[in-house]
Amino acid sequence: MRSDATGPTVCRACGWDADRGAVVCPSCGSSIHHQDVEKKGSESTKVEECEHWSELPTHSVRTAKVGVGGILILLAGFLGITHALLSLLPGTGEDILATYGSVIAPGETLNEILDSYEVYAGLMMLFGVLAVVLSMFAFNRSRFDGALAGGVFGVMSIGFLFGAFFALVGLLLIATSRREFIPECG
């Protein structure tokens, strides 16, 4: 009594390795359900895909790339919020922005845009807040996509132009260390 499929399977009742095409276990005589075997095979692949860094062998260690990337994205978010606040507040922001504008030549054009369009400054502040909040996923190592989104928002928050570079480096560090995040199994 064999079906078309070939290859070894394990009996649920006794654990005997039977042929994949077997309908009845040769050891205990119980029936082997091929649907259960396929489900069992798919569960084993999920377990392998959902392997966390703490369950890996000792030669694969946890690196500091995610933590450093999270710090850089957090810093970029705070720089974006600060830049947006200084450009929105009349009087206080002009002196500081004029001072740093002489250090970085492209900063003058950016400051003129921010002074003219408060909407852009508001978007910078929003992106900075999102970068700060989403960088917490990098610190917790809980959601890879959330940490990547934090890096993207950190780049878009600009943050005295330094913040964009910090966020870009943090984004690259997080993107290259995907295996260190807790997988979402379910």
Description:
By secondary structure, the chain is mostly helical. The chain has two domains: 8-49, no CATH class; 65-180, no CATH class. Helices cover 61% and strands 3% of the residues. It is built from seven helices and two strands. Helix 2 (65-88) crosses helix 3 (92-103).
What is the gist of this entry?
The protein is mainly alpha-helical and 186 residues long. Helix content is 61%, strand content 3%. A hairpin with a 6-residue loop joins strand 1 (8-10) and strand 2.
- Bulk shape: rod-shaped
**Measured distance between first and last alpha carbons:** 36 Å
Round the Cα radius of gyration to an integer and report it. Answer: 27 Å
Per DSSP, the total helix count is: 7
Low-confidence stretches: 1-5, 35-47
Helix and strand sequence = EEHHHHHHH
Total count of domains: 2
What is the mean predicted local confidence, pLDDT?
77
**Total number of strands:** 2
Give the structural class.
mainly alpha
Strand order of the largest sheet: 1-2
Strand content: under 5%
Helix content class: 55-70%
Specify the biggest β-sheet: 2 strands, antiparallel
List keywords for this structure.
about 190 residues, 2 domains
Present the secondary structure layout:
Blueprint: E1 8-10, E2 17-19, H1 34-49, H2 65-88, H3 92-103, H4 106-116, H5 118-140, H6 144-156, H7 162-175
Antiparallel strand pairs: 1-2
